[in-house]
TrEMBL record:
It comes from Gadus morhua (Atlantic cod). One of its GO terms (biological process) is lipid metabolic process. SUPFAM superfamilies: UDP-Glycosyltransferase/glycogen phosphorylase (SSF53756). This is Fucosyltransferase. Pathway: Glycolipid biosynthesis; Protein modification; protein glycosylation. The keyword Transferase applies.
Length: 366
């Protein structure tokens, strides 16, 4: 085995010198990698701010090749999102042969490395300093809207995949999803309701569109308000109880951006409450959730007309219940970081080969 590997590495070094411009093929499976070694062509993926001679590049590639595990796929979390640690949420056999870690000493062996955008320094000083192994893919992970995170000029062409709430992301990492039942069921029971309209808000900005709309809406209907913005912090469990107890929940996003539909929508949908949404267009919402499951603020000319509609539904139970008919065939689920990681892993198992995001900043920030 040693002689064979040495021969392969020698072949790789020769091909590297002659074919530095050619793209590499990737493979996550250990057995698949062995089969591809004979035809392997490598080129160094440069990291901004670090330069190496061709000889040093070849040496580094050879060290990386000898470190590749043959039986496990290693997923490395370089930054925990907001320092929140989680486990992969894979289905059944998806976990077979998967090693999930935050141990940076395994960098040279990792097949996927996840980088949470909000934790990347603008000068990239907290990113890996070593060259990227030929088989490794970098994943840009971000669930914040463009208005709530900064662009990093040097990172615009640094990543191979995107894991983001956008539907056109390489692997969409949404805040939730609507899944179809295998068989239709009339099993929905409306939770007890003792409030008409509720809103839980942590941050407050007078310039936000949602604040302007709320200030007008509250003139025409009583709104039960909670959260740090109103001096009434609530725990996760308390939040669930509050949302469940309301007929309508104000699912007002803190910024308006394509596909930016957060837990503010998926929480009430999964808890038996009708979300009143303020965010992207109705058409964009309907790409994510059933059109009959929510009320869009733009469906009404004025906040008063919206308030009138909510009062009407409060007095007409049959029409109110029509907002839950979608539950017969679908189920609302909240998303998770662990689910995103597993979907990215599954995507890479079947991905066609080398790929890169050429202009991340233009794609996301415009």
């Amino acid at each position: 085995m040693q002689m064979t590997l040495a021969g392969v590495l020698y072949f790789v070094s020769l091909m590297f010198l002659e074919n530095t411009g050619q793209k590499r093929k990737h493979d996550l499976g250990g057995n698949k990698r062995k089969k591809q070694m004979k035809g392997l062509k490598c080129s160094h993926v440069p990291f901004s701010g670090h330069t190496y001679s061709q000889r040093e590049q070849i040496r580094q590639e050879m060290r990386n090749l000898t470190a590749v595990p043959t039986d496990r796929t290693i997923i490395l979390i370089w930054f925990w999102p907001f320092n929140y640690k989680f486990s992969p949420e894979c289905i059944g056999s998806d976990l077979h042969g998967l090693h999930f870690t935050d141990n940076r000493s395994l960098y040279n062996q990792a097949h996927l490395v996840f980088f949470h955008h909000r934790d990347i320094r603008t000068d990239l000083s907290n990113m890996p300093k070593e060259p990227r192994p030929w088989f490794q893919k970098w994943v840009w992970m971000n669930k914040e809207s463009p208005a709530n995170c900064h662009r990093i000029p040097q990172a615009t062409s640094l990543f191979n995949l995107t894991n983001n709430y956008r539907l056109d992301s390489t692997v969409p990492g949404r805040y939730g999803e609507i899944t179809q039942r295998k068989t239709a069921k009339d099993d929905f029971k409306l939770p007890a309701k003792d409030k008409l309209v509720c809103w839980i808000v942590s941050s407050w900005n007078q310039n936000h569109k949602r604040v302007h709309f709320y200030n007008e809406l509250k003139k025409h209907i009583h709104i039960h308000t909670y959260g740090a913005a109103f001096g009434m912090k609530v725990s996760r469990d308390e939040g669930v109880q509050l949302i469940t107890s309301c007929k309508f929940y104000l699912s007002f996003e803190n910024s308006i951006s394509k596909d930016y539909i957060t837990e503010k929508v998926y929480n009430p949908l999964s808890m038996g409450t009708v979300p009143v949404v303020l965010g992207p267009s109705r058409n964009n919402y309907e790409e994510h959730i059933p059109g009959s499951s929510f009320i869009h603020f733009e469906d009404f000319d004025t906040p008063k007309k919206l308030a009138d509609r909510l009062h009407y539904l409060d007095q007409n139970q049959e029409e109110y219940m029509s907002y839950f008919l979608w539950r017969r065939e679908f189920v609302a689920k909240r998303g998770s970081w662990g689910m995103d990681v597993c979907r990215t892993y599954k995507y890479m198992e079947n991905a066609p080969g080398f790929q890169t995001i050429n202009n991340l900043n233009k794609w996301f920030w415009g």
